[in-house]
Amino acid sequence: MSQPRILTVGSGAIGGIYSWRLSKSSQVTNVCRSNYAIVNENGFSFDSKKFGQDVFKPHNVVRTVSEAADLDKDTPFDYILVTMKALPEIYNVADIIAPAVTPGKTTIVLIQNGLGVEEPIVANFPENPIISIVAYIGTSQVSPGHISMVGNESLVVGTYLRSKVDNTEQKKLFLDLLQKGGVDAVDVDDVERVRWQKLFWNASFSPVCAMTGMNTSEVLNNKEALASVRNVMKDVIMSANAMGYEFDVEEQMHTMVDRTEKTAKDYKPSMQLDFERKQPMEVEVILGTPLREAKAKGLAVPYLEVMHDICSAANAKTLLDKKSQL
Amino acid sequence: MSQPRILTVGSGAIGGIYSWRLSKSSQVTNVCRSNYAIVNENGFSFDSKKFGQDVFKPHNVVRTVSEAADLDKDTPFDYILVTMKALPEIYNVADIIAPAVTPGKTTIVLIQNGLGVEEPIVANFPENPIISIVAYIGTSQVSPGHISMVGNESLVVGTYLRSKVDNTEQKKLFLDLLQKGGVDAVDVDDVERVRWQKLFWNASFSPVCAMTGMNTSEVLNNKEALASVRNVMKDVIMSANAMGYEFDVEEQMHTMVDRTEKTAKDYKPSMQLDFERKQPMEVEVILGTPLREAKAKGLAVPYLEVMHDICSAANAKTLLDKKSQL
Predict the structure, then answer these.
(1) In angstroms, rounded to a whole number, what is the distance separating the alpha carbons of residues B317 and A304?
(2) What does this protein do (chains A, B) (predicted)?
(3) Mean pLDDT computed over A193-203
């Protein structure tokens, strides 16, 4: 059997790392934007304790999804791996990947933050299998094409229960491809629960760090900052429970704060880095979706609400300022 | 009768303007810090539509309150006018003015933002009359000693009901001194009510502008920013009502938003300017005191709480960064 064809859309740090690992057993094409010239010429270079130092040249490097679709028109992509920032307030991922999706054939794999990222995919490609992945990894693109990765990584590879199409076979194969690349990938039947749990941290620490300018350790050492982390986190846990999950509020809060103290010293969440770089933050998938889900269930979540609203407005301000510079 | 002796502590825009107006009928000494050299040499210069263009040379310019106290030891100051930023989290105004306060004699006049600014004064100088003033004015020190003032101004000159000392006579005289200087000063018996009402705006628009980076017009045009303004404002109005006032929540919210649309276009509140300049914001007197008052009454004010907590942490971060630069 020939190697699976994979298209990676979003070739930053996450997209680079997993393209590289999948390339051990697959033919990977990368859509690159700002790093196109470098990656097309030299490939990606990596510095990782877990995976080593290496250079990876993709099978193809292209500038757009349409260009990828034109490469070998008769052979559909088996997988499209989406590793773009999740910004439904700015673009629709479904529109971006559409040219390379073969209905009923291509499996769409999302490695994205937040909640609700599968919705536009299922709505636009109801006949395609979907694999929804939550990543736990510390990595960044330190300069175009150069990717640094600290510590370990793991992927929770899941089923999105609101999808109409079974993904059992495709998920099994994809797990196998990941594991051949040395990735720590585990299989779950309901990825939504994992996404909620990751939000307990990401919807509380991230916006508090972004708004106050404090890193995780500074937040932990400041009574008021930690109070807002806990208040927002409590709202998010209660929202998850309103959706039918059964998380113990105090236990989850304790675990999240405790783990941050032990493993995330002086850390700046991606939302904070985005804000400092005057890039849009992933507000809707991290704060907006849980807020809407809670409100739909009639739950009052005032701490989450005000945090969503000011971060959303801060994003709008970033866009206003960019426009005024044009 | 000789002219009253007035000492102004805090010689920025507000301190400069009202020292100038009071100098028409009083002998004014100014404590200057960053603008000492310029003001000592040339006085303050003003550019105001209401009061005209002028230069004002204070009777004395000093660097510290102690220096002022040494000027004419046998004649107490009749009034100490405090126009410093209200930052109880950083300094205690009572300690700063102490060298120039003659017990039982000097009247202490506060032109400061927020709620609770009188508390440390009453605690430290229980025998001295106190006059508490709320200012409505748009003015700034554009360069050291040079003060620009737009539009009109007005002062609400009040009695602080928790004071143990009657201020009737001193307030009447001080109103007269202000009015001789052309100031639009009105007399009220309970200044606390006016302070609360000013907070409806200042505790909602100001932190939302500061955290989002939006000016007032941008906030009014953004659904989420305006939603957080309204949510926080509602909490503050309910807090005022819990303290015994009777404000109509919807009417106040409508008035505040409507007035902002009409009279505060593209305006940046002082809290926002402080944040942008990496100066401490007046968080405690604007957000902290109403939060504590509400909590003491058993009222839940989650929107106000989270806004207080992140602004307080942002202030702490400003101080951390300043320390690390030393």
Answers:
(1) 22
(2) Catalyzes the NADPH-dependent reduction of ketopantoate into pantoic acid.
(3) 97
The pLDDT of residue B98: 97
Asked if the Cβ–Cβ distance from B227 to A303 is below 8 Å, we say no
Give the C-alpha distances (Å, rounded to integers) separating B55 from A114, B39, B138, B149: 60, 10, 19, 14
Here the ipTM equals 0.90
Q: Do A308 and B222 touch (CB under 8 A)?
A: no
CB A134 within 8 A of CB A191: yes
Ordered by where they begin, the domains of chain B are: 5-189 (3.40.50.720), 195-324 (1.10.1040.10)
pLDDT of B20 over the 90 cut: yes
Place of tokens 């502590």: B9
Nearest CA to CA, how far is B2 from chain A (Å)? 51
| CA of A239 vs chain B CAs: smallest distance (Å) | 16
Chain A residues touching B316 at Cβ < 8 A: 212, 214, 218, 222, 224-225
Percent of chain A with pLDDT over 70: 99
Q: In one letter, which amino acid is B85?
A: K
**Model confidence at A2: pLDDT above 90:** no
In whole angstroms, give the CA distance from residue A292 to residue A312: 14
Contacts of B321 in chain A (CB under 8 A): 213
The rounded distance, in Å, linking the Cα atoms of A13 and A197 is 23
Burial B65-98, CB ≥16 within 10 A → b, else e: beebbeeeeeebbbbbbbbbbbbbbeeebbebbe
* DSSP 8-state secondary structure symbol assigned to residue B73: T
Residue B312: pLDDT above 90?
yes
Q: Which residue of chain B is at minimal alpha-carbon distance from A224? A: B309
| A306: nearest CA partner in chain B | B228
How many whole angstroms separate alpha carbon A296 and alpha carbon A289?
10
Which pLDDT tens digit goes with each residue over B184-222?
A: 999 999 999 999 999 999 999 999 999 999 999 999 999
Q: What is the pLDDT of residues B47-79, one digit of tens each?
A: 999 999 999 999 999 999 999 999 988 899 999
Whether residue A4 contacts residue A78, with contact meaning beta carbons closer than 8 Å, is answered with yes
Helices A13-22 and A168-180 cross at an angle (nearest 10°) of 90
Residues A302, B231: C-beta atoms closer than 8 Å: yes
* Chain B positions in Cβ-Cβ contact with residue A306 (cut-off 8 Å): 228, 231-232, 302-303, 306-307
**Contact assignment for B305 to A303 by CB distance below 8 Å:** yes
Nearest residue of B to residue A315 by CA position? Answer: B212
**Could you say which of B212, B218, B309 has the minimum Cβ distance to residue A228?**
B309
Question: Does A231 contact B316 at a Cβ distance shorter than 8 Å?
Answer: no
Q: Report pLDDT for B324.
A: 82
Q: Using the beta-carbon criterion (under 8 Å), do B313 and A232 form an inter-chain contact?
A: no
User: Scanning every residue of chain A, which has its alpha carbon at the shortest distance from the alpha carbon of B235?
Assistant: A302
Is a pLDDT exceeding 80 seen at residue B158? yes
Count Cα neighbours of B145 within 13 Å in the Cβ-side half-sphere: 17
Of A200, A233, A204, residue with least CA distance to A216: A204
Grouping H, G, I as helix, E, B as strand and the rest as coil, residue A190 is: coil
Which SS3 state, helix, strand or coil, does residue B275 take?
helix
> What are the tens digits of pLDDT across the range B76-100?
999 999 999 999 989 999 999 999 9
E-state strands within chain A: 5-9, 27-31, 44-48, 52-56, 60-62, 79-82, 107-111, 130-143, 146-158, 185-188
- Partners of A287 on chain B (C-beta within 8 Å) are none
